[in-house]
Amino acid sequence: MDTEPRTVRANGITLAYRVWGPEDAPPVVLLHARGTDGADWAEIAPALAAGPRRVYAPDLRGHGRSDWPGGYAYEAMRDDVLAFLRALGIARADVVGHSLGGAVAYLLAQYSPRLVRRLVLEDVPAPFPLDPPRPSAERPDGDLPYDWAMVLATDEQRNAPDPLWWDHMGRLTMPTLLIGGGPTSLIPQEQIAAFAEVLPDARRVTIDAGHLVHETRPEDFLAAVGEFLSPADRTPS
């Protein structure tokens, strides 16, 4: 099973990614949270790959071994993932996103609904303006495994999201699983409920694990996601 990072040129930058599972199996793309990278899925990916599935976990721009080019709009990350899939010849995939990765995932699904067969959003905040706004973050000392400019840029967008992100939620016509982390999560769980109210085909589950659901309770996360992705109407890319 190949888990060594690879690279591909996509959207004008180099993206690093990891792969698990048979080459001819249906594809699943895992998008990590802010400040982590594709290795964050190392415990989850092998179990999903046993489906069998071909599991891809890219490092988003500004994270890990992918390029740190500046320009950290959510839409740029979306376009990176779209170009990543095109570069690998993947015409349709299941997409799982956690936190920031979940926002990138729903923007991808809004932009190209036919590309996403099923969507999983793990403890993803709704794009509502923060009131009060999140204060400016202070950079930690030392080297970081991500670009600090990415933190500042995503904080700015989190404080004042593009209203179209919410207005276009009706475009997510694919089956969508919403996983909330429960009352100990830093994400207000009423925002998970708000997604459930506007998405045409949403299923909601709460796993009382806090924000890091797949890390804190991997077996429960895998049970929910594995069942959701299991229907047999699957074709390889």
SSE blueprint and pairings:
Elements lengths: L5 E5 L2 E8 L6 E5 L13 H5 L4 E5 L15 H14 L5 E6 L1 H12 L4 E7 L25 H12 L3 H5 L8 E5 L8 H10 L3 E5 L6 H4 L1 H11 L9
Helix pairs in contact: 2-3
Notes on the structure:
Residues 26-130 form the AB hydrolase-1 domain. Keywords: Hydrolase. It comes from Streptomyces coeruleorubidus. Pfam families: Abhydrolase_1. This is Alpha/beta fold hydrolase. The structure is a single chain. This protein is of the alpha/beta class. It has one domain (6-228): Rossmann fold (3-Layer(aba) Sandwich). 31% of the residues lie in helices and 19% in strands. The protein contains 8 helices and 8 strands. The chain has helices at residues 45-49, 74-87, 100-111, 148-159, 163-167, 189-198, 213-216, 218-228; strands spanning 6-10, 13-20, 27-31, 54-58, 93-98, 116-122, 176-180, 202-206. The protein has an 8-stranded mixed beta sheet with strand order 1-2-4-3-5-6-7-8, with helices on both faces. Helix 2 packs across helix 3 (100-111). The protein is globular.
**DSSP strand count:** 8
Indicate the structural class: alpha/beta
Give the biggest beta sheet.
Answer: 8 strands, mixed
Q: How much of the residues is beta strand, in percent?
A: 15-25%
CATH architecture: 3-Layer(aba) Sandwich
Distance between the termini: 19 Å
- CATH class bucket: Alpha Beta
Instruction: Give the full name of the CATH homologous superfamily.
Output: Alpha/Beta hydrolase fold, catalytic domain
The averaged pLDDT comes out at 95
Q: Level of helix content?
A: 25-40%
Question: Any idea what the shape is?
Answer: globular
Low-confidence stretches: 232-237
Total of domains: 1
Question: What is the C-alpha radius of gyration, as a whole number of Å?
Answer: 16 Å
Enumerate the strands of the largest sheet in spatial order, edge to edge or round the barrel: 1-2-4-3-5-6-7-8
CATH overall fold name: Rossmann fold
The topology string of helices and strands comes to EEEHEHEHEHHEHEHH
